[in-house]
Amino acid sequence: MLRSHFKMADEGFGMSAENRRAEQERAALRNEIRRDYQRKVNDPKAKGMVLDPAVVRWNHARHSSYQFFKATPKSSLVGFFCGLLPPLGLIYIFDRYKKYEKRMFAEGKWTKPRALLRG
């Protein structure tokens, strides 16, 4: 029983040898980048600022997002419902209320409020 458990762990939890080797190479690359960054951060003779490559990539992605934007049906619907529908809905509601208010004053059901400045 114990031997079969270790055999399963050696198999890489169902990963093929090629996938396991690729994952090990990626992990080694990540570790090398991490070691290089830590070496730069902790260098007492270093002058200036140490740039984190992940932060540089993040900032580039944020600032260049409009160059690579592609309108899709989903993005168009989101733009319509979040950018166009609320202002149009508010304009419609205020217009209806203004008409209702004028009708109520015309029918005499409401009286206009007294102006504070006119006495």
From TrEMBL:
Protein family membership: Belongs to the complex I NDUFB4 subunit family.
UniProt GO cellular component terms: mitochondrial inner membrane
InterPro entries according to UniProt: NADH_UbQ_OxRdtase_NDUFB4_su
Gene that produces this protein: LOC110974628
Keyword DNA-binding included in the entry's annotation: no
Protein known as: NADH dehydrogenase [ubiquinone] 1 beta subcomplex subunit 4
Keyword entries, A-Z: Electron transport, Membrane, Mitochondrion, Mitochondrion inner membrane, Respiratory chain, Transmembrane, Transmembrane helix, Transport
Location of this chain's protein in the cell: Mitochondrion inner membrane
Membrane topology of the entry: Single-pass membrane protein
Residue stretches spanning the membrane: 76-94
